[in-house]
């Protein structure tokens, strides 16, 4: 779902609100979450999840084209941890999650055409 789809759906579900008002509400919520993360605060929405900023230390990376070492500065990256209620709603109320993950298929080598001899 895109931001514009979210606004359209909220406006349709709340006919007493004008679309520009819904746009302002959605933009304000996103702006406040972003501003809190920029300040280093944590944003917790009960039943939904928590947004926080995790710090990544400076490191030495590699230029994929040349292989040369490149310094990568430390930075903060946004992190979202879903709440219990959100996980339960996604996985179904029957408790479908929580068990072991299904087994993964083994990776197979690509099949190559046989070489022709002339």
From TrEMBL:
What the entry lists under SUPFAM superfamilies is as follows: IHF-like DNA-binding proteins (SSF47729)
Compositional bias of kind Low complexity = 101-118
Is Transmembrane helix among the key words of this record? no
Leader sequence residues: none
Task: Kindly give the Pfam families that the UniProt entry links to this protein.
Answer: Bac_DNA_binding (PF00216)
PROSITE patterns from the xrefs? Answer: HISTONE_LIKE (PS00045)
Annotated region Disordered: the residues are 87-118
Alphabetically list the UniProt keywords. DNA recombination, DNA-binding, Transcription, Transcription regulation, Translation regulation
- Subunit annotation: Heterodimer of an alpha and a beta chain.
Q: Write out the similarity annotation.
A: Belongs to the bacterial histone-like protein family.
| Protein task | This protein is one of the two subunits of integration host factor, a specific DNA-binding protein that functions in genetic recombination as well as in transcriptional and translational control.
Name listed for the protein in its UniProt record: Integration host factor subunit beta
């Amino acid at each position: 779902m895109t931001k514009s789809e979210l606004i359209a759906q909220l406006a349709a579900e709340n006919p007493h609100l004008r679309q520009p008002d819904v746009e302002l509400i959605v933009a304000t919520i996103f702006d406040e979450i972003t501003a809190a993360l920029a300040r280093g605060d944590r944003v917790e929405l009960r039943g939904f999840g928590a947004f926080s900023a995790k710090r990544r230390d400076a490191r030495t990376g590699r230029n994929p084209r040349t292989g040369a070492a490149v310094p990568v500065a430390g930075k903060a990256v946004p992190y979202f941890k879903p709440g219990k209620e959100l996980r339960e709603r996604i996985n179904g109320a029957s408790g479908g999650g929580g068990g072991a993950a299904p087994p993964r298929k083994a990776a197979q080598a690509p099949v190559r055409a046989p070489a022709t001899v002339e």
